[in-house]
Amino acid sequence: MARLWVLAVAFLAIVFLCEGGELRYNFYSKSCPSAEETVQKVVKKYIDKNRTLAAPLLRMHFHDCFVRGCDASVLLNSTANNTAEKAAIPNLSLRGFEVYDDVKAQIEAKCPGIVSCADIIALVARDAVVARSGGPSWLVKTGRRDGVISLRSEALTNIPSPFANFSQLKISFESRGLDVKDLVVLSGAHTIGISFCPPFSNRLYNFTGKGDMDPSLDPSYAQFLKTKCTSLLDRTTTVAMDPNSSLTFDSHYFTNLKEKKGLFQSDVALLTNSIAKTFVDEQVDTESFFENFKNSMQRMSEVQVLTGMEGQIRRQCAFVN
What we know:
- The structure is a single chain.
- The chain is an all-alpha fold.
- It contains 14 helices and two strands.
- Helix 3 packs antiparallel against helix 5 (117-130), helix 8 (180-187) packs across helix 13 and helix 8 crosses helix 14 (286-300).
- It is globular and about 55 Å long.
């Protein structure tokens, strides 16, 4: 029996050496060959039922990677002794958690303890952009491990604010190894999805605290937004971030931005820096935007990842083991 135990440990060590230690393409080709196909099928199932899910599934990846790196900490539930990232104001509007639970359950049934929730988030984001939204596909390196810490305070501090100016955005991205081009290109994710009124309604009714409107906002677009968000007290109405194109992944966001129709102050901030503005101009071309978006998403997905023996492979994405 002891000899069998030693052989089992040796086998697991060999598997780890072959499968672990760094991010790479087809990380699960031997240990769980159906993993990526399972993710793709589950994502398609949900988005076929509800196309609006594509944007929040993409957004989940952003919100995860900007807090402690891409370690699936955004999926952890709060406990009696800790308030998790989910409870932070920037994350209260996140949705689609059931998609990750479904993917994880199906993969665990086939390959228990092998595929991380962090990798699932990265794969779901890619497949959500492709499914029904017409966006580009890209290769995703896998091999991430899951974190065990999730703090509401860190989400509040680290997730870029819709009220941020260019300097604040630049610092936030640079601290994660991302440059100004990544900042501009990844902001293009706002080409799909919706927002509640509070992240931008101050631009309509009280921009400088004097009951005024943001002068950088196109007046006709501002009037349209006022028909949706009728006051600063409106917290339930939603507005498309990319008017007339919120379900299609395209470069229309950048066209809007150049026409002074960016929804958030953080969008408009991209036009206040000459280098960023040049990148905005380049992304108007859909082919250029798609190629750059693929590259920037790959870069972001590798921010501060846990690999090898770091972290753990959570059995359920909402709980540490």
